[in-house]
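Re-run with default settings, no changes from the original entry. Doing this only to confirm the output is reproducible before filing.
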Amino acid sequence: MSDWSSGYVADIGYTYGYYQELNPLRIQLAFLNAGLKPPTQTGTHCELGYGQGMSVNIHAAASCSTWHANDFNPSQAAFAQSLAAASGANAHLTDEAFADFCTRTDLPDFDSIGLHGIWSWINDENRALIVDFIRRKLKVGGVLYISYNTQPGWAAMLPMRDLLNEHSDVMGFAGQGIAKRIDGALEFADKLMATNPSYLKANPVVIERLAGMKAHNRNYLAHEYFNRDWLPMPFSKMAEWLSAAKVDFACNADYMGHIDAVNLTQDQQTLLTEIPDSMFQQTVRDFMTNQQFRKDYWVKGARKLKVLEQVEALRAQKIILTAHRADVSLKIKGALGEATMQAAIYSPILDVLADHKTKTLGQLEAALKKNDITFAQLLQAVMVLAGSGTLMSVQEDTFIQKAKKHTDKLNAFLIDKSRSSSDISYLASPVTGGGVSVNRFQQLYLLAILRGKKQPEDWANFTWQVLHEQREKVVKEGKTLETAEENLAELTEQAQTFGHKMLPILKALQIA
């Protein structure tokens, strides 16, 4: 372990994930639903611990904001800086230790500060630095986004994580590499579980968690489980830490967390209403849902909206459908399991949005009057659909126009990388101010279009040439397609589906 890493895994890169909760535009709907005045959509923002830099670069390119961000890993910083250079967006990315970055005197004050996950993987000294940074640098009215491993959902796995980490340290050896040490630790855990230990009898969920770990990318596991510092923190303890930063809990950053009906039984909802303290409500709610990972928005100076102000702001909220109408499932998952949405409410909403044109909630409300759908029902449906990734918020036209020159450059850079890797699966939309999931083959089809290919068959041929040159083949339903004919047939079918379903959406989002 390198000394400069402070116990954090540094010999294997983090995944190329994108985290939509860091998008300042996304905060708006969550705040309005909670009855709070949202922060500005533009301004100056900060991300701490940006990993490979996908989120910060997408948000810098897709908005009219200035971004500052820091990650201690120089190799990750180098990649992130290459994205910033490609887009030309206003992103200032560094590779300093928190002790250096958080004490700089040349940084501006921020409209939002975001941390995805890192709080769980750093020591108390760094936590104190971050809290002081938030206290000093977050503007009044500014928003803190923080996600972290929490209890009680992690309670059963705490001893197992410690065992896996100890096995990696004690039974692994120098030069073996973290991925091999992870495999060895998981193999040992299987042997231990095969002896039917009393720990397993008391915590049967561990078997399922271990199975999930084995299916995960080793880069993810290294950063999630194998850092020296690792602390799932109850909500109450997080609130204690952040009190010094003068921020108040605003709302759940996960839209689905706003929907009690899919997360809590009626008895649980009733009990929560009997608790006058809103912070203790969150602690009790975590027990009800066995919460394992929290995504929260906090605010410095919460401002409650009057009912009229809230409803008027909600009616002005712009949204767009980001999935093909025929592919939208009316089944969703919450803490209580799978639930089916009411077709009488959701189908008319989806039908109105099926043209993938931007609409306000007020326009939707007017269009749905004939269906006897109330505004409260519409709002809940929008929160559910946005939480499932079917809908996204839309920023102002002037911001879209200014951002597009940067997203075009960033997307061209990312799409070109799809020729050699499937690591990156997001592109930037100036419409939503954030990222949109686009897999490798879809990116290659876009690259073919950029190179003048007109038909799905041409996109498939181009993609097959890229794969064939690298001795790669398509995997379908777990089986590798061996012949060129099989590969081309599958790629052509996927290209036709892409042209019919995905391409119109990407055009509406001004990605294609």
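The longest helix spans residues 484-508. The CA atoms of residues 239 and 392 lie 30 Å apart.
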